[in-house]
């Protein structure tokens, strides 16, 4: 009897302690007079996303609908306070003008716990600043133009691959299909290696790059759980010995990098690629840059950082990861929307045909600005299907907004990209595909700070130019020969997966029928 009583008391105490522990920050927004959503213990306002029942872009969108007239409002991401900002002006302030205070992405203090997260995407503060500054020269327009010959040869291989695959089956799964092209591009341009991802797949798929890609972007409940757990409670996550990414990834890229460096005898080549840049770093042993505090004080303060193998390896993995999946998704969503919108498809194809006629069936870097309609289609797709439907920032130094709101270090900022891109005030009839919105003559009708396909401010996507170049090259290669239709089983509206932070269709690919267009023979690439 006594024992039972003790047990009952113990259970009550434990439940009570858990309750206190998981709700102790729940007065954060009330104390600051910020309108907020009433949270649930442990799950806060993101229950559906945390339980992997709903794509995060949608979860946040619903939260936004309740506070339509507020510039921002408070939520609890699990147990942690997060400020959701919807006002374009406040977003500009926070993402750009006051960047110093909110320069972190998420769980910034824990980036060093894994090789794969120890890079410019995850890092914050000085570590982020100095690496970002040193990687930026890789991505100038001039560099892209110099690199384009590599993309051009990849496009030739893609041309052959499409013919081969459509010979096997008229229905193509555009997502995996596009990824074979973009993976090959990034491996060739960044590492100077032949990934062979466009070679026919016979029997079991043994391509190691594709295998690594699947490891990094695994879609499963186990991985979804890890992503959320790390994002909300990183100290417990790493305390329990979890890792977001499997160690096989570091091992594979470690070997790859070593092999490439050796094959160049540790001397920069004339390729001017990522490996050359790294070799430059290695020679100096340190990299130099400005301290992030320069952004606060306005005084220039130089700092240096030691270059070790892990630093280089983690950036290398990041280029691979950021480089292919994002662009493959965008390419396949563009083909999907063109399949649904035959008029737009005709116009895009006509533009491609005219470009090839003008340039004698060769592509060059001008594809990124001589195809305004196709480019507008890609932007419209990025509006409807932003690769990151939600963007996060972390307050890194106590911060006071111009409104007087005080935020402590560690507080999270959520930018509801999917919601903003579907706000009818900014984009009328937001669920319809209207590439005209992004044509040069209409571009200035778009309200500033309402379109964030590549993020904003100093953390803007580093690979933006590269992304545009490879996505458009891929689209030109498809459109010049094929017309697309949805396959019979392909729905006209997609449900997004809740288990990944990328905007991806749930439990299905993008199945399209590829039909040969008339006159394609006159548009075959001319090869050197
Ligand atoms: C269509 C393709 C792509 C899209 C839509 C995309 C989108 C984004 C977005 C939204 C961010 C977050 C920006 C922010 O926090 O403000 C980002 C960051 C980043 N992206 Fe991309 N990206 C694409 C392709 C690429 C490619 C091809 C590369 C590299 C070759 C790349 C490298 C990066 C890097 C390094 C960052 C981190 C920047 C930082 O935190 O300083 N991305 N990208
Ligand atoms: C939003 O996206 C990021 C990935 O950039 C993810 O880590 C974060 O936890 C997501 N969820 C929310 C609710 O912000």
UniProtKB/TrEMBL annotation:
GO terms for cellular component: endoplasmic reticulum membrane. The chain crosses the membrane at residues 6-22. Its main location: endoplasmic reticulum. Its EC number is 1.14.14.1. It is found in: Endoplasmic reticulum membrane; Microsome membrane. GO terms for molecular function: heme binding; iron ion binding; oxidoreductase activity, acting on paired donors, with incorporation or reduction of molecular oxygen, reduced flavin or flavoprotein as one donor, and incorporation of one atom of oxygen. Its cofactor is heme. It is a peripheral membrane protein. It catalyses: an organic molecule + reduced [NADPH--hemoprotein reductase] + O2 = an alcohol + oxidized [NADPH--hemoprotein reductase] + H2O + H(+). It is an enzyme of class 1 (oxidoreductase). Keywords: Endoplasmic reticulum, Heme, Iron, Membrane, Metal-binding, Microsome, Monooxygenase, Oxidoreductase, Transmembrane, Transmembrane helix. It comes from the Eukaryota. Heme binds at residue 461. PANTHER family: CYTOCHROME P450, CYTOCHROME P450 308A1-RELATED. Belongs to the cytochrome P450 family. This is unspecific monooxygenase. It comes from Helicoverpa armigera. The gene is CYP6AE19.
